Amino acid sequence: MRGLSVDIQVPRLEECARCHGKGAEPEDGLVTCPPCRGRGEVIYQQAFLSVRRTSRDAAGAGRSSASVKECRGDGYLRARAETEVNIPRRR
Q: Which of 1, 16, 24, 30 fits 71 for a cystine, CB–CB 3.0-4.6 Å?
């Protein structure tokens, strides 16, 4: 194995070309989530008891959108980069 040159594939995330990392369709944009009003959490209150929960529509972000099909709203795509690794000879 010494004195070889090996090509390896490295998994990585690349920014989605359609949404540029935002996760939303360019024409729709991001809008304030109606249930949480941009806070990212919804407060349920009954008498003296109140419970805070993460907003399902905005997934805690406070904004929702029509998600991009290519990246499924993540803003990034999985890709592989190929690089060459040189293993030097031992003296």
A: 16
- Neighbour tally for 23: CB within 10 Å: 22
Return all residues near 35 (Cβ < 8 A) that are at least 6 apart. Answer: 42, 55, 56, 57, 58
Candidates 88, 61, 90, 91; CA nearest to 5 is: 88
Residue-wise pLDDT tens digits, 40-53: 777 788 888 888 77
Nearest Cα residue to 41 out of 29, 56, 26, 28: 56
**Residue 71's CB: how many other CB atoms inside 10 A?**
21
- pTM of the entire structure? 0.43
